[in-house]
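Hey there, shall we discuss this one?
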Amino acid sequence: GAGAASPATSASAGVETGRSAGTEARGGGWGAPLLLAAALLAAAALLARGLARIEGELARAAAAGNRPARVEFVVPEGSSARRGVPPRLAELGGGRALLGTPEGELVVLRRDPTSGELELERVYRLERDPERHLRREGAPLHGWFLTDVERERRTALREAWERYQSALAQALEDFGASLPTAEEAAAEVARRGGADRLLALTGPEASALQRRTAAIGLARAGYAGALPALLVLLRDHQRNAGFFARLCALTEELSGLALDPARPAEALAEAEAWLRAHPVRDPYARKGAASAGPVSPPR
């Protein structure tokens, strides 16, 4: 038979989130394909019931003379769903469902029993790596693992923050020779989800080194919150031609302005006037996140 191993067997085999996606099935390893096939069949049936329910509601609304609300299914540009790979949905019971995205994530959804609102509970990514934990005694041999995306991103952010702090300390010791490394480390912190930590370092209470690297890191990652700090740097470094030109380029990327670094006073005045006319209302707005243009296009 193709029966799955018991929970006790799973525990003894070291199966847990982030390590293994399940226990190896007996009888040639057919358990996982059978479970996947069952999930897909359940998803198809659930979608069919859902569509039938929607059609019934629309028909009843039309019969009653009510104009039903317009329902649109929006598929993002670039998504594999546009290439004919639909999302998959399977009911888990207890008000929970499993959504398989076209990008390969497994999203666990649950309905709040009080409000009835749909909530996102966990996000996993199914990966196959037969060599993972190969040296660990009792490691499953099927090679499938579930990675908790939230835990993975938190780990990546923690490591990026540690690298940034280390780069700051090194830049203090070598009198700025490691500044490019610290700036890139700050950008990596922002890309990993630590923009809030960097924004806290752009105020007057932070050191000059922290303000500089945090502002440049945020700007490289495309965050609008970098603009006020960039203008402070522009004011302070008008006589540093090379660095001033870099700051102008970053400001242009976020604002859409065309600054002339060869005319520092004019470039600074233009940037300040633009920021007064377009104050940053959302420091977490990102260039390219919702559009391909600047974070706050000139009017």
